[in-house]
Design a protein that fits this description.
This protein is mainly beta. The chain is about 10% helix and about 40% strand. Strand 1 and strand 2 form a beta hairpin.
């Protein structure tokens, strides 16, 4: 019997920190819990390029410093109907003076036009993130 293969949607996830101990987060519409900038890797796009594009589209930030790839995994969002993500987690430092801001998402994805209100979360934290996005935050503490 032939089993169908569930495709994995390629994603990038950005842990952006300032001062070595504050993580950029937002509470996005449609999900309970904190989130980080993230998004789908477009066909022909490298994860590194997708990282910079998604951070810009979702937060308005354009300058990432000391970018490093932390890890990749395959995460099952739901079993029925199946939805799996091949997630690439990155860390980058940012030099941002603002403590909070609201950004209207650009690009042409599903979240275009949504407003994300950003703030900084002191690390380490026990707060739970939406979509298991906190799975690897400990790698940056």
């Amino acid at each position: 019997m032939h089993k169908s293969v569930v495709p994995c949607v390629p994603k990038v996830c950005a842990y952006l920190t300032r001062n070595g101990h504050e993580l950029l987060v937002f509470e996005g519409p449609g999900h309970d819990g904190l989130q980080i900038p993230k998004g789908t890797i477009e066909p022909g796009e490298s994860p590194w390029d997708a990282l910079e594009r998604e951070v810009w589209e979702e937060s308005g930030l354009t300058t990432l410093q000391n970018i490093e790839h932390l890890t990749s995994d395959v995460w099952t969002r739901r079993r029925t109907p199946p939805k799996r993500y091949h997630r690439h987690f990155f860390h980058a430092e940012v030099d941002v003076d603002r403590d909070t801001w609201t950004h209207v998402v650009t690009g042409d994805g599903d979240e275009q036009g949504a407003e994300f209100t950003y703030s900084w979360l002191e690390l380490p934290t026990t707060r739970e993130f939406a979509l298991a996005l906190d799975d690897y935050v400990h790698l940056r503490i």
